[in-house]
Amino acid sequence: MSSISQPWTQPAERLLRWPFLGNLMTLAQAAAAVLALWSLWTLTATPVVVTVDGITETVHTHRRTLAPLLADLGLELHPADRVSPGLDTRLRPDMTVTVERARPVRVLADGRDLTAYVWGETPRSALREAGIPVDDYDRVYVNGQPVALDAPLPPRNATLAQPTYNPGHPWENLQVDSLQLRVYRSIPITVDDGNVPYTIRTTA
């Protein structure tokens, strides 16, 4: 009795399996290497406590000084902003950094429309910081309402909006109420009633 032997397929199956297993091992080694590098990066980073406009977060960085760290955090600083310690300060573990951003104000004066960042608490001081001189006869409107030059400005109200899909840094969701200052210049008018001429200033 003769028998027909079945083809021996086990070596072929092994050949099919081995490349697959090799790829898995390569992927596993790559993942382990990435994880090790990430762990090393995290362990060697410097923790820094950053407070921006009263909102605090601890960040980790490999930067050596403060200025590039703030740039990494997406903070666009203006000359009037207050940063403590100085931007050239060398970072150290658990260091505390405070950033206070000046108030953005839209100024409409002398045909110009500009945005200034100020700390002034009255229209006069805010306009002075914005480089807009005023005198006692000029009229100033704050958010459309007439206000005395030395009256207090509305308080700075800020709300923290809820993050959507990407929370980012918490201060990125801080929304500050807008403030608009409009200046109406007084005009000198000379009055001659037949006696001694005199000059008055008016915005009418």
Walk me through what this model shows:
With 204 residues, this protein is of the alpha+beta class. Among the domains are: 44-100, Ubiquitin-like (UB roll) (Roll); 103-163 and 173-190, Beta-grasp domain (Ubiquitin-like (UB roll), Roll), CATH 3.10.20. It has helices at 10-44, 66-72, 123-129; strands at residues 46-52, 55-61, 82-84, 95-100, 103-109, 112-118, 139-142, 145-147, 158-160, 174-176, 180-184, 187-191, 198-202. The strands form four sheets. Strands 6-5-11-7-8 form a five-stranded mixed beta sheet, with helices on one face. It is elongated. It starts with 9 loop residues before the first helix and ends with a strand. The mean pLDDT is 83.
Features:
204 residues; alpha+beta; Ubiquitin-like (UB roll); 5-stranded mixed sheet; 24% helix
Helix content: 10-25%
Low-confidence regions = none
Strand order of the largest sheet: 6-5-11-7-8
Write down the overall mean pLDDT.
83
Number of strands: 13
> What is the CATH architecture annotation of the domain at 103-163 and 173-190?
Roll
Structural class: alpha+beta
CATH superfamily of the domain at 103-163 and 173-190, please?
Beta-grasp domain
Major β-sheet annotation: 5 strands, mixed
Rg calculated over all Cα atoms: 33 Å
Fold-level CATH name of the domain at 103-163 and 173-190:
Ubiquitin-like (UB roll)
Strand content: 25-35%
Distance between the termini: 125 Å
